[in-house]
Amino acid sequence: MKRAVTFSLCVLLILGAIVILQHSLGESLGVGGEKVEKFSEAQINLLDFLGGARQFLSYVLYMKLDKLHHAYYGDLGAEAELIPYYYLITYLDPHYVDAYYVVGETIFYQGQEEEAIAFTLRGIRNNPDSADLYASLADLYIRQKRYEEAREAYRRALEGEPEIVTRLFIYSGLAAVNRALGDWQGELEAYRRTWAEYQFALLRPDLDINTRDYIVNEINFLLNRVAQLKEEHGQR
Fold it and tell me: What was the pLDDT predicted at 38?
């Protein structure tokens, strides 16, 4: 971790210099375009470069931390040491969705449940179209048995296109939430959507036999559960 600390200190120093430069250049721009005429093309390019530099630093730091995260997975003490560095990534690049996703779950498992939810909500404010962060938020709500809020978060997740999780994950979560709320029709609809996703997945030409068998088993489970729900509620 000493190397990680040293690296992070260097990143902080570089970040500080970048922020100061960006702020001073941004001030020169003024508001409403009053000072834009005095702003040279070179200065505009420098401002763009500084923003790119922050994104690059966040990427490099994330790649280093990702290896440690997988190595330490399950070790709460070791994972706790990584949290401040993930926070740093989100300040370097507020649109780094993966960092929000990882930290929200990690903080939650550290027992800081409300902090995890607040952090994920901050990620959503910075990335309002992120289906993955809404799915992550829903998952955190489920663990707190806040099912109504979880259902709404899953619905928001379905409005976008997830990149970290899958739509199957979202539909499965939505079915579980509706079951917990006693909304059998919502549960049934979620199963129907899940079934459609599985049917689409079976059409993939590169699907290996093990995955295909898994999907077929899941489809059989869904069909049995749907039949059970219909029987319980007098539907055909």
Answer: 47
